[in-house]
Amino acid sequence: xxxxxxxHLAHPxxxxxxxxxxxxxxxxxxxxxxxxxxxxxxxxxxxxxxAATSVGGALREALLMLTAYALYTxxxxxxxxxxxxxxxxxxxxxxAERSLGIDVEPGMQAFFVRHDLVxxxxxxxxxxxxxxxxxxxxxxxxxxxxxxxxxVRNLVLLSWSAGLVWYALQPMAPPRLLEGGLLDTVTAQxxxxxxxxxxxxxxxxxxxxxxxxxxxxxxxxxxxxxxxPWAWSRAIGFAYPALITVCVIVTGNHFVxxxxxxxxxxxxxxxxxxxxxxxxxxxxLPAPAPGPARLG
Length: 296
Description:
Blueprint: H1 3-10, H2 18-53, H3 58-78, H4 83-100, H5 105-114, H6 119-144, H7 149-169, H8 185-189, H9 197-200, H10 212-215, H11 217-227, H12 231-250, H13 256-277
């Protein structure tokens, strides 16, 4: 096949005005397809915003959050890699922290344990922060800041969903499960055994990255600062993210980079939640032109 023939087949020259007419028809078709695509996306986004901004009764919202957390916990407990895979990932994380000079976990836990710096408090806080403090925070926002509730609810749901994806893609053992690693102070000093068979149904031992304990701590901090009238509770709110960061490290459940991973999940989730729930801006209509003056 000659070069000229190939060019003709690729770009055929149509007789008369047929070629321009077809090109105009194709242009019109492309424009209509683009408009249809924009309308489809706009309709989907409007539906998503309606669902995201809706607020039901207390029972409906409680069932929604309880169901979501139960599914999150169940999937996290059953979905993920093996302990060996988690330890391999953790070994790489330890090497990264050493190269960055932030492998502070062994030293921090040893210091707190050796000086008996209220370890029972940190152990209870690790468990209570997710199963007591966070649900109570969501309830307080629903009760006293109803206008902010859709944002908080969607932020939590999006963070849980993103966390599940990360747990599946990168199983990560916590420091307490590494050979020669940190102590499991929660199991040793509380009635909760993190390695018990029943607990493992709802607790994935290789889901250390990201740390949503820390990632969602700013939500609790905001609620304490904005919703409580006492100076001491507001002070706790300001300190809460730092307290949770110390808690997850000294109990041997997270690395420093796990903390960074939690923030890397929650910050984009907060942006999406804000986009879904921010008030729509009504278009500003131009003022009508004054009509002709009427004579008395």
